[in-house]
Amino acid sequence: MIKDVFLWPVRVYYEDTDAAGIVYHANYLRFMERARTEWLRALGFEQDALAREHGVVFVITESTLAFKRAARFNDELVVRSTLERLRGASIEFAQTITDHLGGTVCTARNVVACVTRDSLQPRRIPAHMMEIFTGGD
Question: Which of 4, 18, 99, 118 is catalytic?
Fold first, then answer.
């Protein structure tokens, strides 16, 4: 199974912050979503093609976050994503956002389910994806 860490850099823009000048809490989820999308892209999977060709999309079914310190406007962050658990129709990710000094800003456990595009019913992750995720095991 893929245990490699995928790193995705993100800079905090003014629009990401709240009135106090710190990253609005929901935006950490956006940063993590982008990192998972880029992880899939790095593996050769485009989400629009998966929906069109295989009729599947991925949706968050569970998310647990812990905020450790505030990120602020113009900070350079890194989202670290690791596939922790793979099931027939879901993937569990451990994700950590760190600042430019390597300090932990936020940690999360995110579970993503594979569902049909039209009915949103659970569906097994396509075999060609599972083969890549498991390394052919």
Answer: 18
